[in-house]
Task: structure prediction
Amino acid sequence: MAGGPKALPSTGPHSLRDMPHPLAGSSSEEAVGGDSTPSPDLLMARSFGDKDLILPNGGTPAGTSSPASSSSLLNRLQLDDDIDGETRDLFVIVDDPKKHVCTMETYITYRITTKSTRVEFDLPEYSVRRRYQDFDWLRSKLEESQPTHLIPPLPEKFVVKGVVDRFSEEFVETRRKALDKFLKRITDHPVLSFNEHFNVFLTAKDLNAYKKQGIALLTRMGESVKHVTGGYKLRTRPLEFAAIGDYLDTFALKLGTIDRIAQRIIKEEIEYLVELREYGPVYSTWSALEGELAEPLEGVSACIGNCSTALEELTDDMTEDFLPVLREYILYSDSMKSVLKKRDQVQAEYEAKLEAVALRKEDRPKVPADVEKCQDRMECFNADLKADMERWQNNKRQDFRQLLMGMADKNIQYYEKCLMAWESIIPLLQEKQEAK
Amino acid sequence: MYVFLFLKNNFSVVLFLFRSVEHTDGQSVLTDSLWRRYSEFELLRNYLLVYYPHIVVPPLPEKRAEFVWHKLSADNMDPDFVERRRIGLENFLLRIASHPILCRDKIFYLFLTQEGNWKETVNETGFQLKADSRLKALNATFRVKNPDKRFTDLKHYSDELQSVISHLLRVRARVADRLYGVYKVHGNYGRVFSEWSAIEKEMGDGLQSAGHHMDVYASSIDDILEDEEHYADQLKEYLFYAEALRAVCRKHELMQYDLEMAAQDLASKKQQCEELATGTVRTFSLKGMTTKLFGQETPEQREARIKVLEEQINEGEQQLKSKNLEGREFVKNAWADIERFKEQKNRDLKEALISYAVMQISIRLHLVWTNSYLCLSEL
Result:
C-alpha cells in the first residue's frame, strides 16, 4: 500500500489488475455477521481520502481487445456455457442495505459481496458498498460498451415522493432484490460478466473516482457500433428479428395488462380487508351480551381476525414480490426493442454501402474494406443478439415459472391459514356448556 | 307434522301440506294443498300476538329484501329472494307447530286446513279490535314505578341484540360485496393468460391451463355467496325474534302500569270515601268543589255518594285482585316461554355458527389454487 498517487504505466484496463488491492486487508471480512461496517461519515471520509486506489490516467485504449469481445469466441463460450452451479466461477450477492444520513442528502447503500476464482479478479473475495446511482452508472456503461447485447433492467429509478416511502423497509427490500437480480443476470452472462466496468463496480473501493476518470472501455464491437451512422433506414427487417420484435410487443402488452389486473386485485383485496376488520369485532360486541354463546361468538371474532391478518400478509407479498418483477420485464422488453432498432441501423448502413458499391459498376468485384467492416459488424451483432435472445427466453421461462408459482403458493398459504383458523373453532362451537 | 311450501306464482305462496296428525286411534290424516297469501300469514301472526301476549311468537321472514349487497337485487320478484322467503315461511309454520302451546291453537289449525273463509273466521274472533288497542298501547310512553328488573333487563337485552345483529348483517353484506369484487377481477386473468399463451412455445400449455383455473375460481363466488345468504337468513330470524321478545317485555310493562294505575285509583277512591265519612276534605274532588260553590249537600246526598264509592271500591278491589292474579300468571307463563326461547336461541345460533364455519372450510378453493400451481409447474 503505497502512499500518494502514483502514476502507473498506462496500459489500459489491465493496469488495475497489477495493483495490490486496497481491500486486501479487509477482504477476510465475511459477508455475513459482524457489524464492522464503518459509520457513514467514516465511509465518506475514507472514500475521498483514500490514497490506496490508484487509477490509471490517460486515454482510452481504443484498440485493446478483451478476451470475450470476439463473436466467434463468444459463440463457443455460449455453447459450452453451463448454467449449473458446478462450473460457475463468479458469485455476487447484494444485501445489507444501510441508510446514510448526510448534510446534503439521505440515501441507501447496499453491500455487494463477490466471490470468484477468475483471473480477472486479484482477490478471491470482495466486499463493497454501492448505491442506486452506481448501478445506474454501471448499466449505462454496459449499454455503451456492449451495445450488441441485452442488458438486464434496473428497478425503476424515480419514485414519486409522498406516495411511496423510499426508506421504508418494504421498498428497500424490494429494491435490493431487484438489484441482486440485476447483478446475477450479468454474472450469468458469458460476455457481460467479463466486462471491465462490471469488474470495477464489484471491486473498486472508490467508484466515484473511477467514474470521474470517464474511462470509456469500449469493446471492439462497442467501438464499432458506436460509429454506425444513424442516417440509413432499413427496408425490411429479417424475418427472425421481425418475429422477435412482434413477440416483444405482444409480450410487453400482455404483461402490462397483467400488471393492471394484479394492481386491481390488490386494491379489491385491501377493500375487502377493511370490511373484514370491522366484521370480526361485531361478533365480540355480541359476545358481551350473551351467556352460553359468549365463547363461541368470541371464537368466531378471533377467527375472522386471523383471516384478516392472513389476507394482509398476502396483499403485502403480492405488492412486494409480484408487481416489481412484472414491471422489470416490461422495462427489459423495452430496452431489448432498442437493441433491435440499433441492429436495424447496422444492417441498414451495410445494405446502403453495399448498394452504393454495386451501383458504381466498377470492374473490381472486390468489396472495399469499409463495406466488409459493415458486414462483419452486422453479422456479429446478429449472432450476439440471437444468442442473447435464446438465453433470455430460457431465463424468462424460469423466472415466470418461479413468479407464477410463487403467486399461487402465496394464495395457497393464505387459504390454508384461513382453513386452520376455522377448523380450530369447530370444537369450541360444538362444546357442550357445563350446567351452571 | 310436515309442512312443505311451494310457489304458485310471484304473488302467492302455495301451501302444500302433508300433515300427519296423530289421532287417538293412531291414524294419520293427510290433507290436500291449500293456497295462502303472504298477507294471510301476517294475519295469523297478528292473531297469535294478540291472544298469546306472553309467548315469544315466531317471526315472519322479511317482506322486502334488506341488508343486500350489490349483486343481489333488492327486487322482491328476484327468484332467489322468493325462494328464501318460501323457506322462511315454511320455517315460521314449523316453529309454531313445534311450540308446546301455539301448536294447539284452533285458528292455527284452521289456517292449515280451512280452505275458504279462514279470514272471516279469524275476524269473527274480534281480535282486530284488540290488535288495534294492543298496537296503540305498545307504542305509548309511560312510566312504571316498580318495574320488574328481570323484564327490564330482558328488554334491554332484546334492544341490544337487535342492534348488534343489524350491524352484523350490514357489515356482512359489505364483506360479501367486496369478496365478490376480488373473485371477479381474478377472472380477468383468464383471458390475458390465454392470449399470452398464444405467443409462447414451451410456456403455452401451462399458461393456458392457469388461465382456465382463474376462470373457475372467479365463477365459484356465486355459490359461495348463495350459501352465505342462508347464514344471513338465520341471523335475520333472530333479529326479528328479538322484536318479539321485546313485545313480551312491553306487554308486561303495560300490565304493570295498568296494575299500578288501578291500585292508585283504588287508593284515591278509598281516601275520598274516608273523607266523606269523616267530613274532612283533604283530597280534591269535583263534587267537593261544586259543593263549595253551590252549597252543601244534604246528608242523604252524602250517604248516596259514600254508597256509590263503596261499591266502586269493592269493584276496584276485585279488579285489582284479578289483575294481580293475571299479572302473576303472565309473569309465570311468560318466563317459562322465555326460558324455552333462550334455549332454542342458543341451540339454533350455535348450529348456525357451526355450519358457517363448516361452509368456510368447505370452500376448498385452495384446491383450485393447488391445481393451478401444479399446472404452472409444467411451465
